[in-house]
Amino acid sequence: METKKQTFIVIYKPGSAWLDGKPLSEQPLKDHGEYMLSLYKLGVLRFAGPFEDDTGGAVVFEASGEDEAKNIVNKDPAVINRIFVYELHPWRLVPWEQYIKK
């Protein structure tokens, strides 16, 4: 029996190891990108990307609960290396399609 997955959103913000004055593209985030790709390949990651104003980024993924979600985020190399700090929120997506009159 498959466990029902819950959706989470992570807001990444600059941490203590963020390189001041450098845009997101110049931050040491290669390992972070590889980790995000690995989550995508596993079918965990749904959406992810940087904010256009160089203030961090967001990730939407699925986990079996808050403990698993925290574990996923805490294994992110950018979190481990303090390039990012994060906010993690369980997120209930509204199925808007069902409200459209057909």
Based on the model shown, name its key terms.
globular, 102 residues, four-stranded antiparallel beta sheet, Alpha-Beta Plaits
Can you offer a commentary on this structure?
This protein has 102 residues and is an alpha+beta fold. The chain has one domain: 2-Layer Sandwich (Alpha-Beta Plaits). The protein is 25% helix and 28% strand. The chain is built from 3 helices and 4 strands. A 4-stranded antiparallel β-sheet has the order 2-3-1-4. Strand 2 and strand 3 form a beta hairpin. The longest helix has 12 residues. It is globular, with a radius of gyration of 15 Å. The N and C termini lie far apart (34 Å). The mean pLDDT is 94.
Topology:
Elements: E1 6-14, H1 30-41, E2 45-50, E3 57-63, H2 66-74, H3 77-80, E4 84-90
Globally, the shape reads: globular
Helix content: 10-25%
**Roughly what is the average pLDDT, rounded to an integer?**
94
Q: List the total number of helices.
A: 3
What characterizes the major β-sheet? 4 strands, antiparallel
The fold-level CATH name is: Alpha-Beta Plaits
SS-based class? alpha+beta
Task: Kindly summarize this structure in a few lines.
This protein has 102 residues and is an alpha+beta fold.
